[in-house]
Every structure is written in C-alpha cells, then in structure tokens.
Amino acid sequence: MARMSYRDAIRETTAEELRRDDSVYLIGEDVGRWGNLFGASAGLLEEFGPERICDSPISEAAMTGCAIGSALYGMRPIAEIMYIDFITIAMDQMINHGVKYHQLSNGQVRVPVVFRTQGGVGMRNSSQHSQSLENWFVNVPGLIVVMPSTPADLCGLLRSAVRSDNPVLLIEHKSLYFTRGEVPEGDYTIPFGVADIKRAGEDVTIIATSWMVLQALAAARTLADEGISCEVIDPRTLWPLDKQALIDSVKRTKHCVVVTEAPAEGGWSGEAASVVHEHCFAELRKPVRRVCGMRTGIPYGSDLEKAVVPDASWIGDAVRDVLA
Amino acid sequence: MSDNEQLMELYTQLLVLRHFDEFCYDLKMKDLIMNGFHPYSGQEAVAVGVCSLLREDDVVFSTHRPQGHSIAKGSSTRAVFCEMLGRRGGVSQGIGGPMQWIDKPHNFFCGSIVGSGLPIAAGVALAFKRQARDSVAVCFFGDGASNTGAFHEGMNLAAIWKLPALYICENNQYGEAMPVQEFVPVSRISQRATSYGLNGVSVDGMDVEAVLNATADALEQLRAGQGPVFIEMVTYRFRGHYGGDPEHTYRSREEIAVWRNRDPLTLARTRLLARGYSEETLDDLEASVQAEIEGDMEWALEQPFPTVEQATDHVMIPLGQD
Predict the structure, then answer these.
(1) Chain B partners of A96 at a C-beta cutoff of 8 Å?
(2) Do B126 and A104 lie within an 8 Å CB cutoff?
(3) DSSP assignment, residue A127?
(4) Which residue of A has its CA nearest to B122?
(5) Which of A321, A201, A218, A315 is nearest to A253 (CA)?
(6) What whole-number distance in Å separates Cα of residue B85 and Cα of residue A26?
(7) Sheet arrangement for strand A237-239
(8) Which residues of B touch A65 (CB under 8 A)?
(9) CA torsion sign, B266 to B252 to B202 to B166?
(10) Which of A59, A263, B84, B124 could be disulfide-bonded to B153 (CB atoms 3.0-4.6 Å)?
(11) How many angstroms separate the CA atoms of A236 and A54, rounded?
C-alpha cells in the first residue's frame, strides 16, 4: 500500500499502463507540456515522448474522433476532455459513433477507448467549467460510466478501463484531486458494476457518488454522535449499476438517501431511488429521499458554488428526516 | 492491364452501382426499403474511381449515402441489399439500415451524421502512422459537410500531424434541398482545404478516369507519408436527396437534364466505343450486370428479418469478456 493523492493515482496508473502496453496512449489538451491542469500527467511526456503523450489542439471533436478511429485499428487511447463541460463538442463522436460501432459491426469491431474527464464544483469556475453532466451518459446504451471517489478506486477502475474493450467514460472530480488515500500496490483492478461500502452502518443507507461520497462520510460521522448509524455506499460505476449491493443494504437498514451533485430531475439519482423502491418496497419505512444539486447554472465564487450543491449538513438533514 | 481493360472494369463497376441504386429506388417506392435510402445515381464515378485503387487494408468512412462506396470497396451486393431491406444477412445484419453499417472484413464504415467521419478517419490514419503501416484512411463526405465543425476539426488534425487521410468531398450541388452556392461562399470547396495547408484540388467527378488519376496521385503522396490530401469531386445526384423527396421544390427538370447529359456511365461508354468496343458487347455487359443484380435483390427479399433478441445483441461486450 502506498499513500498518495487522487491526482498522483491517475498519473501512476497511467504511467504503469503506458509501460505495460505500447498501444496505450494519452491524448488531450495540454496533457504533455502542462502535464494536465492538475498535474495528473506531469512528467509523462519526458518518459514516453510526444507520440504517446499527445498534446491535442483545442478541438474536442477531433481529439475524440481521433481516439475512436485509432481504437478501431489497434490503439488503446485515453482521451482526456479537460472539463466535462467541453464534452458537448465531442458528444457526436462519442455517442453516435464510438459507442455504436460494436453493435453496428455485429460484434466484430471493438472500441477500446477511455474518455477521462472531470466535473463538479471546487475551482470557482462557474457554469461552463463546473457542471455535473454524468446523467446524460448513463442514458447511452453501450457506454460504461465510472465515477471513482478515492485514489484506490481511481487506480483500480482506470486500470480496468484501459484494459476493457468497451468504451468507458471515467469522470473525475476537481475537488478530489488533492484528497489522499491508500492505494494497493501491484496490478490492482476493480471490476465495473461492483459497489463499495465506504462505511458500514445499520440505520440508513446513503448512496452517494464521486465527491458526494466524502460529504456523505462527513455527515455519517456527525450523525454517529447523535446515535445514528449510517451505511455509505459508493456504486463507483453508475452504469453498469450494482443494484444488488443497494438492495441488500436497504433491506437491512430500511431507509435510504441518494446523494448526487447533479440536479435530481431526469437523473441517475432517480434511477438509484427507483431500483430501491422496486426491490425494497416492503422493507422501506419511508420513501427514498434524494439530496441533489440545485437546478441552476453553477454560480461563480467559492461560497455560492458550494451553496448550490449538497454538503454534509444537507445530507444530515435528509437522514434525520427519513428516520423521523 | 491495358487502359482498355481497366476502363472496361471501371465501366462494369459503374453499371453495378447504377443498377443497384435503381433497384433500391424501386424498393423504396414499394416501401420495402422502409426509410433512410439516399440515392447515389449520378455520383458513381467517384466511388468507383477512388475505391478501385484502394487495397483491402485501406479503410473507408462514408456517409448517409454509402451504398456505392461500400460496394466499390468490396461489400457484396447481396449483403448491402439485405441491409437496405433490414434483413438478416445484411452488412450490419439488418440492424443498421440504409445509412449506417460496418463491413469489417472490407474495412468499411459509414454513418448518417453529416461531417462526422473526418475526425474518425484521422484517428484511423494516426493508428496506421504509429504502426508504420502504409495503409490509408479514406473519408467521403458531401458539400454540406464542409460547414460542420467536425469537418474543420478533423482536417486540421490530419494536417498538423501529417496523417495518411484522403478526404473526398463529393460536391453534388445540394445539401439536402439547399443549393451549394447558398451555403458555401467560395466557388470551390477545395479552397477550404488550402487554409489547412493542403493542396485542395477540384476534379470532374463525372469522369471516372479523372477521378482515378487524381486518386492515384493522392495515394502516392499518402503512402509516402507526406500528409493528407483533399479532393473535391464535382458531381451531381440524379435523384432526390432521399428516395422520393419533393425535388421540384428546389431544382428544375432543365437543370437535371443538363447534368444527365454528363452521366458518368455515358461518358465511360462513349470512350469504350471510341476504343473499339461494340455497342452489342456493351449492351450485353449491361444486361448481364442488371440480371445479376436483380438476382441478388430477389435473394435478399427472401431473407428473414432480425428478431428482437438479435436487435439487442452486441450493445456492449459482456463484462468479464471485455
């Protein structure tokens, strides 16, 4: 085990995969000279050279299409979209093409591409650099959507993503890059569709994603002082979803709160709540509560941007409410 | 191969594409092709001229009007008929339909989002360059594509990285119902390529030998690793944007007649006659091509439709096998 930041877990895992397999390459805006905005690929250009750490023009459709095309013919690209907000420019290439080719080829074509990007608040970057857009992608058949919340999960899931022949969207969070944690040594992988219980508890199940897992854990610590035992579950992959883990937990705790930074309406939080309602209706003592970001453009400024997305106090209030 | 034999082969392929397309038009009118059919009649010289010089390992990306390119790249007419008809046995097993299929053994892809092929073709070309292969990626698209973001992003990427991508713009004079002069402010679309440092050339896309010669030059440059090539093929579609569109709303019979006078099949046939082939030989050839295509169509009409189970196959590789 080594203790490292989420950012360093990205860099170390990427470097190991680049060393392991010559067909892997990283492409994105300023992944080389800058080594990514957060340093998540710092130093890789020096080790692997510009053909494998490939600085792309500010041209998300080109970069994404390029990654897809190269993946059709033997390469294993990691395409980095600097902010998930920029992915709108790349979505035709991803969704109408990259994700469709396996089916359109009757299974003969594989598209082993990883789209890495980051979303959420935390940099006072306002409404075109701070969104949580994962909900859109959960609705795309054929696309795996991953949101790791810890350095270890990032490491294991990124490695699985690079080695998968399915297209994978891996969404990081800008407020997680400098969080730290233990990362297993060696060839550590985590399968898709397997949730992780981040904190075991008995009274209520909190299902949370990405940075919201940290908020949920903070809430759980506070609530423990009040005698409330929270179980915090991180699905880690939004799709495929580990439904059984959610169901097993809620059947025990009989209460459920779902937390996402993205707005609730039409989103994955509704999917998770629906799974719980469909399978745990008899056990539930109260309807599932959702704690989600406000339906607004993310405002500028650290106080305001944090004011429109859930934190530990919102989650604590919701838990008290479902237990009341 | 003598020039005569080569032209005869090209002419045969032109006939295959024309008769295939005309049978498809009839199938669309009978609603047996359910939707999405975009006729290629009139533009055959482009597909035939370009693809006749490609190797099997070269990759082609095409458009919502892909049947000519696909057959010219090697797809069987039976498989393409089946795809048009939504039958099992189609290039994409009847799931893709007339605008989107993949024929992996022939390295052929197409899709119905205008302009979207250019970046993907650049990516294929990037893989070939990294792997030190001399294969090329060819991307067909229309005049309308030249206004999309993906067109400019993709061409720029291929240009800055000197990728072996051949960009073929089939300027058939209309983007759906809109005349090209109304949406492109320059007289030649190839001028757009020059702003990316490419030698944009414009070629008579009704003349299969002109297409062939331009493509030969391009492939020489591409296989030598000298970067992408852009060719505008000036052509015309004889039928509507889609099978059965209200053509009279945007173009006149007189205009169509002028272009039909430059039918690529007639041009090739006239040259063959001048080189000594008899009317009878060429008529017999056409009759045999037509009969063969008709037989393929009849075969395709006998094929089953996919089941619902097959329609949900291969959405993704099952976890654990990926």
Answers:
(1) 111, 113, 116
(2) no
(3) G
(4) A66
(5) A201
(6) 41
(7) A53-55, A24-28, A76-81, A114-119, A168-173, A144-146, A237-239
(8) 116, 118-120, 122-123, 150, 153-154
(9) negative
(10) A59
(11) 28
Q: Do B124 and A97 touch (CB under 8 A)?
A: no
Task: Report domain B4-169+207-298's class.
Answer: alpha beta
Which residues in chain B have their CB less than 8 angstroms from residue A108's CB?
A: 102, 104
Burial code (b: 16+ CB inside 10 Å, e: under 16) for A73-109 equals: bebbbbbbbbbbbbbebbbbbbbebbbbbbbbbbeeb
Distance CA A131, CA A127 (A): 6
Looking at domain A2-183, its CATH superfamily turns out to be Thiamin diphosphate (ThDP)-binding fold, Pyr/PP domains (3.40.50.970)
pLDDT tens for chain B, 322 residues: list them.
568 999 999 999 999 999 999 999 999 999 999 999 999 999 999 999 999 999 999 999 999 999 999 999 999 999 999 999 999 999 999 999 999 999 999 999 999 999 999 999 999 999 999 999 999 999 999 999 999 999 999 999 999 999 999 999 999 999 999 999 999 999 999 999 999 999 889 999 999 999 999 999 999 999 999 999 999 999 999 999 998 899 989 999 999 999 999 999 999 999 999 999 999 999 999 999 999 999 999 999 999 999 999 999 999 999 999 9
A2-183 and A196-323: identical CATH topology: yes
pTM of the model: 0.97
Chain A interface, mutation test: which of B64, B153, B161, B196, most A Cβ atoms within 10 Å?
B153
- How far is the C-alpha of B211 from the C-alpha of B257, rounded, in Å? 22
**Residue A220 in contact with residue A139, Cβ under 8 Å?**
no
Interface of B with A (CB under 8 A): 59, 92-93, 95-96, 100-102, 104, 109, 111, 113, 116, 118-128, 130-131, 137, 149-150, 153-154, 156-157, 160, 313-317, 319-320, 322
- Check B313 against A103: CB less than 8 A apart: yes
Coil, helix or strand at residue B15: helix
Q: Contact A151/A181 with Cβ under 8 angstroms?
A: yes
Residues A251, A283: contact at Cβ < 8 Å?
yes
Q: Where are the domains of chain A?
A: 2-183, 196-323
DSSP states along B118-179: HHHHHHHHHHHHHTT----EEEEEETGGGGSHHHHHHHHHHHHTT--EEEEEEE-SEETTEE
Which option is the CATH number for A196-323: 3.30.1370.10, 3.40.50.920, 3.40.50.150, 1.10.150.170? 3.40.50.920
A91: closest chain B residue by CA? B116
- Which of chain A's residues have a Cβ under 8 Å away from the Cβ of B150? 61-62, 65, 92-93
